[in-house]
Recover the amino acids of this structure.
């Protein structure tokens, strides 16, 4: 059993008969009343994100997990196939257990969190950013870099991202996977 002082980003816990991963937290010490921890929890079974407040000293049940590197192979309907980069074993995961399946490119290396008690894959941690090629967008206009105006673009995985006006088809861009937003154009 852990307590609220052990809470950190990425910690997996049992809460309301489900397994959750802490994606954000904040220790709060108000001027009046007891301290508490405000958390944002993501269900590892259905992907729902909830907010919860734990009072200071509250006991939480920790889940022992392991992280392993896997290579994304291919999608098959709502199922995604991955291969362990160490022993070449393959596993399949459902689309809802992935944070950003539309930004996943074949061959991409991801980290999969696995519950050690029964070897059950719980969630997939994408890299902080991915580099993808623009497949479809309106033509760019030279010199259009002064404003923060954007236009929609479709990348090679099929995801839609808003990009600056100067981006053209065929350009490679860096996308932040957590928010699914454009970061910068990548020169080769």
């Amino acid at each position: 059993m852990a307590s609220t002082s052990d809470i950190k980003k990425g910690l997996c816990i049992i809460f309301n008969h489900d397994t959750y991963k802490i994606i954000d937290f904040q220790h709060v010490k108000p001027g009046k009343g007891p301290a508490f921890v405000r958390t944002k929890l993501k269900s590892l079974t259905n992907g729902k994100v909830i907010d919860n407040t734990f009072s200071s000293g509250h006991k939480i049940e920790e889940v022992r997990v392991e992280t392993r590197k896997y290579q994304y192979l291919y999608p098959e309907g709502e199922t995604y196939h991955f291969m362990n980069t160490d022993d070449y074993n393959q596993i399949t995961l459902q689309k809802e257990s992935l944070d950003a399946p539309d930004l996943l490119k074949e061959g991409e290396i991801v980290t999969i969190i696995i519950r050690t008690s029964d070897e059950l894959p719980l969630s997939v941690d994408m890299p902080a950013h991915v580099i993808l090629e623009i497949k479809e967008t309106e033509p760019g206009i030279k010199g259009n870099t002064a404003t923060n105006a954007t236009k929609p673009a479709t990348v090679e995985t099929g995801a839609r991202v808003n990009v600056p006006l100067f981006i053209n088809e065929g350009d490679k861009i860096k996308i932040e996977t957590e928010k699914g937003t454009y970061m910068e154009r990548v020169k080769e």
About this structure: The longest strand covers residues 65-76.
